[in-house]
Write a structure and sequence with these properties.
The structure is a homodimer.
Chain A (H helix, E strand, L loop, with lengths): L5 H8 L3 H8 L7 H14 L5 H7 L5 E7 L4 H16 L3 E7 L5 H12 L3 E5 L6 H5 L6 E4 L14 E4 L1 H14 L5 E7 L5 H15 L9 E4 L8 H13 L6 E4 L2 H13 L9 E6 L2 H5 L5 E4 L2 H17 L6 E4 L2 E3 L10
Parallel strand pairs in A: 1-2, 1-3, 3-4, 4-5, 5-11, 6-7, 6-8, 8-9, 9-10
Antiparallel strand pairs in A: 10-12
Helix pairs in contact in A: 1-2, 1-3, 2-3, 5-13, 8-9, 10-11
Chain B binds a DNA duplex through helix 1, helix 2 and helix 4.
Chain lengths: ~350, ~350
DNA sequence: CTGAAAGCGCTAACAA
DNA sequence: TTGTTAGCGCTTTCAG
């Protein structure tokens, strides 16, 4: 099937191309009769305009892109739908674009911006150092959502939405300590990670330190470099090895809910009962956590609020030019049944 | 930042635009010296070409798109990475494009094809009746992967990869029956679904019938229309209601692993032990199923093979024109610990 | 090896 | 209300 162009439609209808363009785009300055006739032909021949030509010509679109680094991350996945709803609510077109591991986010973002004449964009996931340096140069509004940064550069100087991983790691562990636990195992991500995992680890250490509990290397498990971190396997192997090592602990902090899933399994296989023999606390509060047995006590990241607030920040930028803003959410502790108070 | 164009680069380098184009695209017919000089400027000014212009001009690209209906489906999500690897292995560029619920897949596919001059596409997920009628008209190679069809039109007359849901539903239930179970509850998706859920249901009924077990409405739970089907909530509510109804059963077939997750929870809360008091079998074999306690016995859909084979089918089409082919995979029964033989 | 020029299919002035 | 036309930024002949 030879691709129909606007010219063909114009010819068939015996009108000029601009008239067809007006009809398709619902623009004023065209009689209802002509419009109807054209649309009929468009339908009949199943004409679909070429977006490349359109984008090329248009000065600006009405599209906001959600650029995702880590499309397989379940936490991010749970936000896609929310973003779409929220963005459409504000009258924008929504475009989800996945960034591969081998690609550079900023390059991808730039390409997409030029290609689609984006009105703005939201970067979800990944890690960036001093993102503002390259991103500001693009000259379009953007917001970072849950984009990690290294511990050295605490917060980028640009719109950013997320949680304070160090603080929430601290909160999770403090909670366990307040429940009477002192021997707290940690199932972490990669050892040489310098972002999320490092910060939650820092929170773990600070909580211990503040309660006068020494940090013990043997209670901490880092995942194998070639294993996907924050995954069930990560948790299974981690808990398994901790148990096998013979070190004793009464509670366990897992850096993600998916990790707890694997950890539950390892614990179960070892005959360690949760929470009786070992309390477990997770992180993220994904849907899954509610259905684990026993129900998982976890640090809930308010994903819906985070989405809403990302969009709101972007709206402000798209409207007028406000100064850069941060929005640091608090994770909420959801108490379920995986942690119990330890009796002396 | 005013957007740099190829003209600007040409001007800066004192060359023609075509020379710049040659440099960027690694084309022959340009001296290494000129090329190097141009690339230096490109780097320095951080020039990134406009893809819309490129796509508009180019006759064909090297891109194959994965068009996904149901981006939040965990089973599909587990295939994204595989598709990318496989497609790149064959030397193609990979593009993941999500279709919203409100959009029509074929329209989206057509737009994308025109916009990106796609070499081919793989449609993942969703449901289509007689897809070949509209898709063949596009004139580019395509493969359907795990695209549902209604029971009336068993198989589209086009390249299609997936499993036979009726058969595998039958296999799952037969397995339970062979294990001595006769009172088998079913936690299904929507009642008026006429695709996946309907077919697995048909398999359930056939298995019962072949073993002379009457179909009992009270053992079957359909999800509430406004609830996400195949979800943990679907399973939790389903199992909960089945238990509350007082009907007795010794085994349960859940139409997805995610459903079993919720069902486990409901069973646990009711004090029903798996598999001692009730055996459970799932469907899909997603990673999660391995980590449930007890390990979930489930019908494993060979997702990696399905991806490979989808790509292979597409490759054949892209190369020469072969006739349409089907590839129906068998789900594999993974036996873990959620089912036991029922003693009389 | 390089540059000028002709479009790709569309939108948006500008005329009519 | 319509049609004509000039590009959007790029690739690709075709001359030089």
């Amino acid at each position: 099937m030879a691709q129909l162009t606007i010219k063909d439609i114009a010819k068939i209808c015996n009108v000029g191309v601009s008239t067809v363009s007006r009809a398709i785009n619902n623009e004023p300055g065209i009689s209802d009769k002509t419009k109807e006739r054209i649309m009929q032909v468009v339908q009949e021949f199943n004409y679909i305009p070429n977006n490349s030509a359109r984008n090329l010509k248009m000065v600006e679109s009405n599209t906001i892109a959600l650029i995702v680094t880590g499309i397989d991350n379940v936490f991010f996945q749970s936000m896609f739908g929310e973003f779409e709803v929220e963005l459409r609510k504000h009258g924008f077109d929504y475009l989800l674009h996945a960034v591969s591991w081998q690609e550079d986010v900023v390059t991808v973002a730039t390409e997409l911006m030029k290609e689609k004449r984006l009105k703005g964009m939201i970067l979800l996931g990944g890690q960036m150092e001093r993102p503002e340096e390259r991103l500001d140069a693009l000259g379009i509004p953007y917001v970072l959502c849950t984009v990690a940064h290294s511990s050295e550069h605490p917060l980028p100087n640009c719109p950013w939405v997320g949680i304070d991983d160090e603080l929430e790691g601290y909160n999770a562990v403090s909670y366990l300590i307040n429940k009477g636990h002192r021997d707290i195992a940690l199932v972490a991500g990669q050892r040489y990670d310098n972002a999320v995992s490092a910060q939650r680890l820092a929170g773990y250490r600070r909580a211990l330190a503040e309660h006068g509990i020494p940090y013990r290397e043997e209670l901490v498990h880092f995942t194998d470099p070639q294993m996907t971190d924050f995954s069930p396997e990560n948790g299974y192997v981690g808990a398994k090895e901790l148990i096998a090592s013979g070190v004793s602990f009464t509670a366990m902090f897992c850096m993600s809910d998916l990790i707890t899933l694997g950890a539950y399994k390892a614990l179960d296989e070892a005959g360690v009962r949760v929470p009786k023999d070992c309390s477990v606390i997770g992180f993220d509060g994904i849907e899954l956590s509610k259905y684990m047995c026993p129900g998982l006590t976890t640090m809930y990241q308010p994903r819906v609020d985070m989405v809403k607030s990302s969009v709101e920040l972007l709206m402000k930028e798209v409207g007028a030019d406000n100064g850069p803003v941060h929005k640091i959410y608090e994770a909420t502790l959801i108490e379920r049944d995986s942690v119990i108070t330890r009796e002396e």
